[in-house]
Amino acid sequence: MGGPTPGPAIARALLSKDLRTLRDDRAASDVARAMHWSLSKLNRIENGKVTIGPVEVEALARHYGVDDPEELRRLVRLSVTSRQRMWWRDEHFAEDFTNFIAFEHDASHLYGYQATFIPPLLQIPEYALAVTSSVLRRPTRDRQVRTIVDVRLKRQESLRQRLDGDFPPSLSQVIDEAVLLRPVGGGDVMTAQLDHLAEMAKRPGIRIVVLPLRLGVHPGLGGTFELLTFTEDDDLDVVFIETPASDFLLTDREDTATFREITTELLDTDPSGDSLHRALTAAKATLRS
């Protein structure tokens, strides 16, 4: 049985990497001239900023000396996949956030650390609405608040479909205990949110770790983040950092390696695997008091 078929984001990343490798030590300006392209177009293709059509990718590969039919078909398939129009491309968000959603859809393992609110993929609608309204400092009926929540719910639906598929991803999320003690949306909403965490944690491939307040200092004190990894490319990690003012997407290996190390250390704080159960029990008792 084969592995999962790459989605649009990973297909674009793989194709741009392959084309850069094929160019080898050829001058980019010479290649662009031979293809009747601008140098900017070639650079954007190799950097994964734009897609390249099947006809163009075959012509470029042949220019590089690729004549193996199967390899040409593989490159063309990556081109076709990379150009698929997915729902998130119709949303009007910043480029980094849109690209993050695309990569999230293709990731084989979704990691994250949250110190201020429940991880977005694990939020119930009522909690998502309350926390988004607070972060944006706008009423819950505000159009921007509603749009962000709607997109978050679409991301959750995409994840659920993949979890039920033939090649389900893994989800490992670390949450600071203070998040569970903060009654976002009120007591009833928070109780439902805590119950949802418990249910999600029962699903295969989902791990939720809670960092207890008594832990003191830990590697996550540097800030929250989300980390995506991919079976198709061990060299590609994606880190997303969200702030009220702007978002950041990191793909450089030197940058993302630090977040891999932090993630490992945070997950290692729960060797027995019972941190969520203990924290949920304590949080519910606090809500009832």
UniProtKB/TrEMBL annotation:
SMART domains named in the record: HTH_XRE
HTH cro/C1-type domain: residues covered: 19-72
Xref: Gene3D superfamilies: lambda repressor-like DNA-binding domains
Pfam family, any one: DUF5753
InterPro entries: Cro/C1-type_HTH, DUF5753, Lambda_DNA-bd_dom_sf
One Gene Ontology MF term: DNA binding
PROSITE patterns named among the record's database cross-references: HTH_CROC1
Protein name: Transcriptional regulator
